[in-house]
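Input sequence (341 aa), recorded before submission:
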Amino acid sequence: MGPHPAVAAIRLAVRRVLHEVLDDARAGEAPLVLVACSGGADSMALASALAFEAPRLGVRAGGITVDHGLQAGSDARAREVAERLTALGLAPVETVAVSVGRAGGPEAAARSARYAALDAAAERHRAGAVLLGHTRDDQAETVLLGLARGSGTRSLSGMAAVSGGLSGSCGAATRYRRPFLAVDRQTTRKACLVQALPVWDDPHNADPAFTRSRVRHEALPVLEKALGRGVVEALARTAQLSRDDADALDAWALEAQRAATRPDGTLEIAALHDLPPAVRRRVLRRAAIAAGAPAGSLFARHIEETDRLITAWRGQSPLNLPGRVEAKRQGGRLVLQQANQ
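Predicted structure, token format:
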């Protein structure tokens, strides 16, 4: 008799990703794959599937748990998670304590600290990949948040199955991989239950002070009640379709930027004017970031005003963009550079 369907589903998802990791590995190399585990159902299910599949494919498997220090007893809880990972047979297993700042709000600050710790751990252990336990439900929430922000196709594309690209000390590219983007949260919880895996439910996930928690416990249930239970699947499908579109537009914009860039680094107005707005504005965003504008502070209104220097030129004054970047039109050129240069 085979494993429970929920266990079979999570193992299949991880097996597929491990085959991809092996394809990317150097010939004869047994790559190390780390799982980022909070102790919740999603990441515990991921850890259990990794522990089962990795030795069967000749992959080394370890685990990392991050202590954000945001709750009393978080250090003891991190140690418990590490003990569970070790009991599954993962090695190396490590707990990493981080200090969470305030930039961008509590959710963004915790995420930044967590990824910095995972980056460092991957570098330290020369890992070929780091697995993250985001599910189809997480993807749906991400798309809904992007839709609420009105921040465009790339925001609607949600989380990528493969992202990042660290350069480890071994010279290999370390990637974040999300095997469960096609697996729902109910399946991961069921897999933990039938395997008798203890899980920890982070109270922050139910705290209405956090935006994602409100989306999870208030917005999505209302949508499902009004539109039917296929909302999560539809939003996840929207993410993939949007990602395909955004990737195509980004590739077009890269070629357009190369064609429009003069030897002195300025942009040729004539080469940009007749481009579709979606492509031209991607070119302008890339150019502004290259000039020093922080990506997280560069909003749609900044790009729209910069675009008007090309499409609605009326002798406007130079624009002040985030990061002390100035955008101005000089003759037939668009100049983006640090102010006072």
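Checked by second reader. The two ends are 72 Å apart (CA to CA).
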